[in-house]
Amino acid sequence: MAPTHVLRCCQRGLAWIPVIFIALVVCWSYYAYVVELCIFTIPSIAEKIIYMVFFHLSFVMFVWSYWKTIFTRPANPSKEFCLPKAEKEQYVKEERPESQQEILWRATANLPLYTRTGAGAIRYCDRCQVIKPDRCHHCSACDMCVLKMDHHCPWVNNCVGFSNYKFFILFLCYSLVYCLFIAATVLQYFIKFWTLCRRKSAENCPKNELPDTHAKFHVLFLFFVAAMFCISILSLFSYHLWLVGKNRSTIEAFRAPVFRTGSDKNGFSLGFGKNIAQVFGDERKFWLLPIFTRLSFSYLLSPLSRCVVIRCVVIRCVVIRCVVIRCVVIRCVVIRCVVIRCVVIRCVVIRCVVIRCGVILCGVILCVVIRCVVIRCV
Ligand SMILES: [Zn+2]
Ligand SMILES: [Zn+2]
What we know:
Blueprint: H1 3-14, H2 17-39, H3 45-71, H4 85-93, H5 97-107, E1 115-116, E2 124-125, E3 130-131, E4 137-139, E5 144-146, E6 151-153, E7 158-160, H6 165-194, H7 215-246, H8 250-254, E8 258-259, E9 262-263, H9 272-280, H10 303-377
Antiparallel strand pairs: 1-8, 2-3, 4-5, 6-7, 8-9
Helix pairs in contact: 2-3, 2-7, 3-6, 4-5, 6-7
Bound molecules: zinc ion (ZN) (2 copies).
Subcellular location: Membrane
Pfam family, one: DHHC
Keywords: Acyltransferase, Membrane, Transferase, Transmembrane, Transmembrane helix
């Protein structure tokens, strides 16, 4: 095995340490809250049940969103952004940057690209050999180009970008709820443990005081850890909510994106409501669930891509209109057929009646003739 390969494997293994650390802290917090606090410390049954129900709700949402943030693969540029084979070879052979840019200009003539490098050139990743779409950046930790890359987060060992930004925001939100709930409900027992009586059992302990048991250390640390995480997550969560409202990634907040007309830090903003819909999707009922609901084209968001979205909507409307017209036509044809059938049936009935009348008339005439002949003979 090559030394570089071994080194890369070691790096990948070490990158999981922060995730394992968080997982261990979460497992311990579960044990400390459920077993040591709810089962061994809280005397009231009703209080135990209420705490356990709300704790498990926040715990499930927190773990679900954390899981989705870690294991959702970052989205890469589609194959339209790769140079064709002949042009790629030509690009590699060329040594002059001007000639390379000419190849890129030709290749990107039909692509919805609005951002440029600081020098006004087409953004190209030499590592991935791909033209970078708007808001796409190369992550050196993941060694790939990531669509609407926000940052590489060591706490989830994944790139936060187009595919998992909603999950990341929800992870921050639910971890804040989880820590706030723990800190708020543990606080009264945290205070009681400071004024605990020295007796080892609850039987001889005065009311409103807690015995000196092993639960003491768990409850004390639970409050400290929850309060500490609360403060750090609150600042990060507030910052990302502000970014969502402005439709900026962390990278764009530090360095304004450069467009054809120059740099513009608000170049991707569509207004507060639409900016939120870009990350969380149009349907509000799915906003708080860690499932992918954002708009398909939202990672591009350049004027042309907006045109593509509008065009899709228009095409959809035309298709729906065609279907409606077709239905109306079919309905008309059916009605016409029914009318024709009715007319035919009516004609047949009339014909039958006429024939029947004719037969009866013939019978009557025949009877009269026979009667006349008989009378004459007589
Ligand atoms: Zn790249
Ligand atoms: Zn990354």
